[in-house]
Amino acid sequence: MNPDAVLAAAAAAWARVGAGLTPADRTALGEELARRRRAPGPAAHRAATERAAALLATGLPGEFGAGGRSVALPVADSGTVAGFTADDLAVLLLDGSPMAGPVLTAVRERLLAAPSVPASELACGGSGLVLLPAEGGRRVPRFQLAPDGAVRPVVLTVNRLLDAEADPWGAADWWLSPHAWLGAPPAGLLGTPAEAQLPDLARLLTEVC
Fold first, then answer.
1. Full strand arrangement of the beta sheet holding 132-134
2. Are the beta carbons of 160 and 207 closer than 8 angstroms?
3. Which of 3, 19, 81, 166 has the most CB atoms lying inside 10 A of its own CB?
4. Can you tell me whether residue 107 is helix, strand or coil?
């Protein structure tokens, strides 16, 4: 299995693989994935990929050594394993995001494509807001802020109901996806009289769950 496919296989089985790595191995793997992500050229990118794959083979020989469980997984022509790519491993480990793989990558990309600002630019530090992990730090989807940059009070109320701190991706998806009852994404109602409905809708969701 080529090094890129090894990383893809690790992403595909991350719940098991991540739990099997020692803290030191996780740190070392994260460092190599960070180098891979910011590599200045193909040679540096390839070298970091190979080092990361070697770390996995050494740390988890039963998974990534010769005849290991994960290296036996089929690799698609695209280099993916079960729909996961090598880049997904960095998303899982470096970003701490579960939004990887054949289904959730598209959701992550859609949510991150929404207008946003770096959390570091907020005077409040982002407390109570949906904060999405992304390259370069956490991002604050812009819909949560009024035109003057202040946090919308109704957003804080809804985010608390949605437990946005524990599940930022789920909260962001609720805000930014079309709502069957509203006929539009909830974020589209902010700043209108209809925003008063949003806490009740969020409360209904949590009661159903």
1. 116-118, 137-141, 132-134
2. no
3. 81
4. helix
Residue 204 has pLDDT above 80, yes or no: yes
Task: Read off the pLDDT of residues 67-79 as tens digits, 9 standing for 90 and up.
Answer: 788 878 888 988 8
**Cα-Cα-Cα-Cα dihedral sign, residues 126, 127, 133, 136:** positive
Q: Among all chains, which residue has been given the structure tokens 């109602």?
A: 189
CB 40 within 8 A of CB 116: no
Strand partners, 138: 133
Q: Euclidean distance between the first and final Cα of the chain, in Å?
A: 42
Residues in CB range of 197: below 8 A, 6 or more apart? 182, 189
Q: Which residue has the tokens 């006929």?
A: 183
Task: Determine the 3-state secondary structure of 205 from DSSP.
Answer: helix
> Is the pLDDT score of 112 beyond 60?
yes
Q: Is 208 helix (H, G, I), strand (E, B) or coil?
A: helix
Tens digits of residue pLDDT in 80-99: 999 999 999 999 999 888 89
SS3 145: strand
Residue labelled with tokens 């996961």? 84
